[in-house]
Write a structure and sequence with these properties.
alpha+beta; 3-stranded mixed beta sheet; 35% helix
Length: 110
């Protein structure tokens, strides 16, 4: 099992590119640098014709060891076509939890 200390943004990104042939990956450590909570945007052709649940299962399977070593993992999964459409419409997609106001994540309460 991976130790929490050994789970890094770059390590997660590398594995997602290698295993899922991701064309775009953004990983953010949401834990303030201690490596216990990560959010991600993942774009992969392997997500085509898959439900959100099936996409998350693919990602979780690829990162099984890493996810077991951390506290929180929040992915957003897109096909290349969905990602292009999101960026073309001008609404910049951010990793889950990144769109914050002060200390409270948008859509939650303190």
């Amino acid at each position: 099992m991976a130790e929490a200390d050994s789970v890094t943004e770059e390590g997660l990104k590398t594995k997602l590119v290698d295993v899922l042939h991701a064309t775009h990956v953004e990983i953010e450590d949401m834990s303030g640098g201690c490596g216990q909570a990560f959010s991600a945007i993942i774009v992969s052709p392997q997500f085509v014709k898959k439900t959100t649940l099936a996409r998350h299962r693919l990602v979780n399977s690829a990162l099984k060891t890493e996810i077991a070593a951390i506290h929180a993992w929040t992915p957003k999964c897109y096909t290349p076509e969905q990602w292009a459409r999101e960026n073309q419409e001008g609404s910049r997609v951010v990793a889950p939890g990144k769109d914050t106001t002060g200390e409270v994540v948008t859509g939650t309460s303190a």
